[in-house]
Amino acid sequence: MTSSQIWGKVKGHHKIALSGNLFCIVTKGIPSLRLPLMKCPQCGHLEHRVLETRVHREEDIRRRRECMNCKLRFSTVETLLIHYPHVIKKDGRREPFSKEKLRRGIQIACKKRPVSVGQIENLVNRISRWVQSSPDKELSALKIGQAVVKELKALDDVAYVRFASVYKSFTDVNEFMRSLEEERQKISEVEI
């Protein structure tokens, strides 16, 4: 018997097929949905029931569970692992795309502006989906920045100017004004 396939008997005719950290409940020879192997944090028992399920944000699922053995109630969060392309920075470095970094930059640009947290989350999710759907394995930071600038322009003019001023390095006001004009032209080229 291999370590990837271990069978155990559970309550009569139900069996659990273990494979890595996943298990599959088999009833009368028909496999059901594969679920993550989860132990009670208190007693280590494998059987529990889900009391409540909530979708948190767009990619997280929060479940409230109760152990069938010791009756302990505990919460779990299931997160979808998404593979994003790498970002090519201005200096040539490559780093993984970070949704948190994107969110932080947009929050700074929108500070003390009439932009809600929900609007920021929607913007971050739109940009993240656009980055994820890109067929390229690497995207330039400039291209992502242009997409953010385009979205912020539609959301709030001041946040747009703030983000654009940080996104580009300026030495004086005239350079900033020229760059804003160039950005307006580039924005029309980027599609999200």
Question: What does this entry look like structurally?
Answer:
- The chain has helices spanning 99-109, 117-132, 141-155, 157-167, 173-187, and strands at residues 6-10, 14-19, 22-27, 30-36, 48-56, 60-67, 73-79, 86-88, 94-96, 138-140.
- It is an alpha+beta fold and 192 residues long.
- Helix 1 packs across helix 2 (117-132), helix 1 crosses helix 4 (157-167) and helix 3 runs antiparallel to helix 4.
- Residues 1-34 have low confidence and may be disordered.
What spatial order of strands do you see in the largest sheet? 1-2-3-4
Query: Proportion of β residues?
Result: 25-35%
> Pairing-aware structural class of the strands and helices?
alpha+beta
End-to-end gap: 51 Å
Mean pLDDT: 77
Work out the helicity level.
25-40%
Any idea what the shape is? Answer: elongated
Q: What is the makeup of the main sheet?
A: 4 strands, antiparallel
Unreliable stretches (pLDDT < 50, length at least 5) are: 1-34
Order of helices and strands: EEEEEEEEEHHEHHH
Number of strands: 10
Q: Give the helix tally.
A: 5
Using only CA atoms, what is the Rg? Answer: 24 Å
Structural topology:
Elements lengths: L5 E5 L3 E6 L2 E6 L2 E7 L11 E9 L3 E8 L5 E7 L6 E3 L5 E3 L2 H11 L7 H16 L5 E3 H15 L1 H11 L5 H15 L5
Helix pairs in contact: 1-2, 1-4, 2-3, 3-4, 3-5
